[in-house]
Amino acid sequence: MALPLKITVLAAFMLLGACRSDPISFHTLVPAQPGSGRSGSEIAIEGITVPPQVDRAQIVIRQGNSGLAILETEWWGATLADELRTALVDQLSSASGQQKLSVRVDVQRFDSIPGQYGLIDVKWRLRPLGAADSALLTCRSVLQTPSGPSIDELVAAQQNNVKRLAAQISQAASGSRGCPPAS
Questions:
Q1: Mind listing the pLDDT tens digit for each residue in 54-68?
Q2: For the ABC-type transport auxiliary lipoprotein component domain, which residue ranges apply (predicted)?
Q3: What is the distance in angstroms between the CA of the first residue and the CA of the last residue of the chain?
Q4: Taking the model in full, what pTM does it have?
């Protein structure tokens, strides 16, 4: 009687082992090296919006001309909107001025294509805290960085895009009138 029980227990463990899924990898838009620090103008983030198709914890990549794939084992550390907020807070700084500013970020597109590029298309609005909309500066940044085929390389490309976006916002906040030129 003990032998059939041992075989049953062994078979159960083998079945459970076969059902094991791949481990989940977590990624962040905050680079390993901290941002350039916060000096000068203080830039508060009013809000961030992201297209609902990509605003999730799982990384979403484009496939072909019209497809999207939700990667079940490759996740952001939080939803994409929260990852963007954390990365921008880390990166935003301005070299001059003591003015308190706020920025609103509206992501129009967040495309990730392994082996090709990471792209972020953002409309953003910068204004002095408490100022009327007449003091508003509205800009658009379309940033694209080449990417290798791995998800790690794709995340690094998107980290670079966020870093460049923060640099453009900081440049506008430093007192230069108008939107930064497209880079």
A1: 999 999 999 988 899
A2: 34-169
A3: 75
A4: 0.81
